[in-house]
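Technical annex, item 7. During the second reporting period the consortium partners agreed on a shared format for inverse folding records so that results from different sites could be compared directly. Each record opens with the tokenized structure and is followed by the designed sequence. A conforming record, contributed by the partner at site C, is shown below for reference.
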């Protein structure tokens, strides 16, 4: 018995424990970045777009077109999560983030080959609809499926998984960085600033007046 334990201990690569901890930390980083990305795409992004068009839509240069464009109307209507309070919405986000960390196939590749593969599309749909009941049910089902974190026991395979997760986390970080520079994601820190909104409205009003001036001059020339 003692000999077996010694052999078993000796077979573990000395770098395995450190590599395992680092891989777990990378998975957590990836799950965090993915949760922000889903939140931006499905909830915060549409909300920022809606707030922007409510604040500046009347100053659009192509006002008639902007007012009638379906995507602007959908953004202003902002129909997602209509019955959820702020606390309920935060609860839905928390549950979704917990589910993402154990069900998303980019975080745990084995999730793509077991029952979690069927759960993930349902979880995303429930999250987009703010369906807390469905998310709670998915959490109960997931807890029965995931008892421990699945990681390779072989150090070579673990190194490959470590490198895969590192690349996926870096890619997710790049996507967030790129999104943060584009509309409506670049509005997230500005729309709460009343002074900024006021300055932007003045600037847009000036641009609108400037771009419409040639049309008025052309009209005067035609009349004369």
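Designed sequence (site C submission):
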């Amino acid at each position: 018995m003692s000999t077996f334990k010694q052999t078993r201990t000796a077979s573990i690569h000395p770098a395995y424990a450190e590599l395992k901890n680092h891989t777990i930390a990378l998975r957590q980083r990836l799950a965090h970045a993915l949760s922000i990305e889903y939140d931006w795409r499905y909830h915060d992004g549409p909300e920022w777009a809606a707030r922007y068009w409510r604040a500046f839509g009347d100053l659009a240069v192509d006002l008639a077109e902007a007012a009638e464009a379906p995507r602007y109307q959908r953004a202003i209507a902002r129909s997602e999560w209509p019955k959820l309070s702020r606390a309920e919405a935060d609860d839905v986000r928390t549950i979704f983030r917990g589910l993402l960390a154990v069900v998303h196939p980019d975080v745990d590749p084995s999730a793509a080959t077991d029952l979690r593969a069927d759960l993930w599309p349902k979880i995303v749909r429930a999250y987009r609809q703010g369906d807390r009941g469905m998310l709670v049910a998915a959490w109960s089902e997931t807890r029965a499926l995931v008892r421990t974190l699945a990681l390779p026991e072989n150090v070579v395979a673990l190194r490959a998984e470590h490198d895969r997760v590192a690349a996926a986390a870096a890619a997710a970080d790049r996507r967030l960085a790129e999104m943060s520079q584009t509309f409506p994601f670049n509005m997230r820190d500005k729309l709460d600033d009343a002074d900024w909104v006021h300055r932007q409205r003045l600037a847009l009003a000036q641009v609108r007046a400037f771009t419409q001036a040639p049309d008025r001059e052309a009209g005067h020339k035609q009349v004369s």
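The first helix runs from residue 2 to 10. Residues 1-10 have pLDDT under 50 and may be disordered. All partners now use this format for quarterly exchanges.
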